Amino acid sequence: MSAYAGTGTLLRLWLRRDRIMLPFWLYALTGYVASTALGFRSLYDTPASIHDFASGITSNGAMLAFYGELRAETLGGLVSWRLGSTGGAMVAVMAVFLVIRHTRAEEETGRLELVGSTAIGRRTALTAGLLVGVGAAVTLGVLASIVLIACGLPVAGSLAFAAGWTAVGLVFSAVAAAAAQFTENTRTARGLALAAVGASFALRAVGDAGPGALSWLSPLGWTGELAAYAGERWWVLFLPLAATAALTAAAYGLADRRDLGAGLLPTRLGPATGTVRGVFGLAARLQRGTLLAWTAGFALYGAAIGGIAEGADDLVRDSGGTREILERIGGSGAVTDTFLSAMFGIIGLLVSAYGVQTALRLRGEETDTHLELLLATPARRPSWTLGHLVWTFGGIVVVLAACGLAAGTVRAASTGASSDIARLTGVALAQAPAAWTVAGAAVLLFGLVPRASQAAWGVLAAFGLLGQFGPLLELPQPVMDLSPFTHTPHLPGADAPLVPLVWLALTALVVTVAGIAGFTRRDLMS
Question: What sections of the protein cross the membrane (predicted)?
Answer without folding.
Answer: 20-40, 79-100, 130-156, 162-180, 192-214, 234-255, 291-309, 338-356, 389-408, 428-448, 455-473, 501-520
